[in-house]
Amino acid sequence: MAIVAAALADDGEGAAALLEPLEARDVCRVAVRLAAMAAHALVAVAEEGGGGRDEALAHWQACIIAHESRHTEE
What's the superkingdom here (predicted)? Predict the structure, then answer.
């Protein structure tokens, strides 16, 4: 949860520091699990709002692209 909190606070360095003591395989597992949890939450919210899985994932992809483009500009 601390990794998520750091990431939400836009503290990538802090999140990375929390992962640093872990072996690479464990870091990969954490990343995959967090991505799966985020995708599941987005799909659930979309379905509650009358949308579908494809719509939710397309919206998520657009948000990621927008987020990355903002960080590229900095």
Answer: Bacteria
